[in-house]
Amino acid sequence: MSKMITEQNLRLLIDTLVKEGARVVGPRQAGAMTLYEPLTKGDDLVLDQLPRRSAKEAFFPVCETILSFERKEGKTTVQDVDVCTVPETVLIGARPCDAAAPGILDAVFSWDYKDEFFLERRRRTTIIGLACTKADDACFCTAVGLSPAEMKGADLFLTPLEGGGYACEAPTEKGERLMARHPQLFDDAGNAKPLPLAEPAVEKLDLQKIKAWLDGNFESPLWYGIADRCAGCGACAFLCPACHCFDINDEGTADKGERRKHWDACGFGKFTNHASGHNPRDIQNKRYRNRIMHKFKYYDDKFGQTLCTGCGRCIRHCPVGIDIYAVIEEINKMGARDQGPGTGKD
Ligand code: SF4
Ligand code: SF4
């Protein structure tokens, strides 16, 4: 039988989980911004704002120590960080564009090298997704195959109801277990209707057509026109739920320190700088081209998925106004022209 939860009980669920010792992460007010951050009580939860940054930090922190080292009297000892210390976590209030992203990233973090820091957090995290009842001009989830009601990636999914409260669906066993552990907080759904959801004002794009155009246009003049504006600030990658590049650095001294993973971005000038000084992506348009190629071609070539959930953050916050939706919409049109009428999928 489908269930519902009142807003009061949703906040009580957070209080209960915190008391049980779980780390609960969700949208909360942080100064002038809303961010996904640890919640200490139910009243912290902000339900009507898309957080400025994505929820990927719950699985992939900006910076994390992976080992520490110390050299004493000529002998070096290395201490690995134990991933079993990762706390049980509930990520609550994740919008569909954020809830879908960790599942897309599973492919790369469990590919040739198993990144247990990411994977252990994935295993120990339950995601409570939340349908969107408002979209802004930058949202385009529907263009890349998701939707404001998309449950992909969510263990439990909440849909706002007319008259208050949320319909609850549990697409996974993790979600069912969470509901089963707190039965007093959930009621039978009844006849309440869902609130109208927010449809972004965009056309659905043909991702296969876009990929086919990218397959044949590594040297297109398109890259010069767009990318010469890019300031290489990396904001788009850092805000993105699906960007996942990182660097590994040793911090400290030769005698004592830590090895850390840090987020990196293909927009940065030194991202591909070789030790020799040669840089195969020596100008910004090559870096911006890589951003588009990685999201809409390379990741698909390798893992059969698109590396963009249409959250719109990189559009909202690009300091020079580069609009990734406009770029791929243009490529979509060029792909349609290249293939001629009636040859593409709808
Ligand atoms: S946010 Fe804009 S300027 Fe900064 S790297 Fe991304 S596309 Fe370039
Ligand atoms: S590329 Fe831009 S719109 Fe797509 S998921 Fe990343 S930040 Fe969101």
Automatic annotation (TrEMBL):
Coiled coil: none
Domain 4Fe-4S ferredoxin-type: 220-251, 299-330
Metal-binding found in the keyword field: yes
Keyword annotations of the record: Iron, Iron-sulfur, Metal-binding
Keyword Metal-binding: yes
PROSITE patterns for this protein: 4FE4S_FER_1 (PS00198), 4FE4S_FER_2 (PS51379)
Protein name: 4Fe-4S dicluster domain-containing protein
